[in-house]
Amino acid sequence: MPRTTAFLNTKKTNGQKPTAINMTTWDSLPIKTAFTQAVTRSGSDLKNPLGLIKSTDNGKTLEKLVFYGETDFHYLSAGYDSGQLFVLNEEPNSELQTGLYSSGDGGESWESRMMEGVESDGIIALAAHPTDQNLVAISSQAGIFLSEDGGDTFSPVTEGKPATSVVLTDETGIYSSIDGETIKLVRFNLDTLEETEYGLPSLKADNPIMYIAVNPNDPSEITFVTYKNDIYRSVDGGSKWEEIMDSGDPR
After folding, report:
1. Residue 24: which of 71, 67, 78, 61 has the closest Cα?
2. How far is CA 72 from CA 46, 152, 159, 171, in A?
3. pLDDT for position 165
4. Which residue from 30, 29, 32, 75 is spatially nearest to 52, judged by alpha carbons?
5. pLDDT tens digits for range 163-183
6. Could you tell me which of 175, 159, 174, 166 has the C-alpha nearest to residue 117?
7. Whole-angstrom Cα distance, residue 218 to residue 206?
8. How crowded is residue 27: how many other Cβ atoms within 10 Å of its Cβ?
9. Residues 39-86: pLDDT tens digits?
10. pTM, full prediction
11. What single string gives the DSSP state of each residue in 65-95?
12. CA angle 220, 164, 34 (to 5 degrees)
């Protein structure tokens, strides 16, 4: 299967939210089925926002699912194989109140999740497990939290330090955190929670890691994107990193 990489412009313009498609849910390389939410650029004849959309051909075509022209999900993740969706809805719409929801049928029906054990106002990102529909992680200002019951209850993996990103693979999770002036990238075992820290290129505290992706066919291939749109990739499990984009420009 050819490699397909989804890049995200995280920069803001004049204090406004980014107008590019938010691809926080494109968790895996290569993309199998990508669910995302998006807002359109000015001049487009599409409604803004696009709601929940899906692609099964590496983004060549997009299928509108639900909430077209109605909702812009800033927090959304999908299981790579399971297709299980998790969204944190910030404003009520025609079908959902505020809170965490999951869907196993592409958004046709939704189940409200209690989200006990984590504060919703500090959430930074969601990460669905690729195969286990009940496993979901949250990165937040307070740390990393993991749920094994579909998002009803969460337990801390780490606490006390902001965690800017998280991704789940079959057996591990990978998260990034800010420890004082130091950016860290850490792998943890999903069963034991034992942690192993990666060596990283020199990253400053004002340029944290915002998105992490792991190739589902080759877990040794890891890619991460920073706040300033620097993109690094490792093909040897994090021993060496290659910068492939600098501030959004190819190297």
Report:
1. 78
2. 14, 23, 29, 31
3. 95
4. 75
5. 999 999 999 999 999 988 899
6. 159
7. 31
8. 29
9. 555 566 777 888 888 888 877 888 888 998 898 888 899 999 999 999
10. 0.81
11. EE-TTT---SEEEE-TTT--EEEEE-S--SS
12. 60
3-state secondary structure 95-130: CCCCEEEEECCCCCCCEEECCECCCHHHEEEEEECC
Rounded Cα–Cα distance for residues 77 and 128 (Å): 6
How many distinct helices (H) and strands (E) make up the chain?
0, 20
Q: Which two tokens stand for residue 152?
A: 């009803």
Residue 83 CA to residue 86 CA, distance in Å, equals 10
SS3 of the chain: helix, strand, coil, percent, to 5 = 0, 40, 55
Cβ neighbors of 43 (< 8 A, separation 6 or more) are none
Torsion angles phi and psi, residue 121, rounded to 5: -75, -10
Comparing C-alpha atoms, which of 217, 229, 223, 218 is closest to residue 198? 223
Give the C-alpha separation, 26 to 213, whole Å: 8
pLDDT at site 120: 76
CB 58, CB 31: distance < 8 Å = yes
Look at residue 69 in the predicted model and tell me its pLDDT: 87
What is the predicted pLDDT for the residue at 40? 53
pLDDT at 34: 52
**Per-residue model confidence (pLDDT) at position 172:** 95
Residue 84 tokens, joined: 């299980």
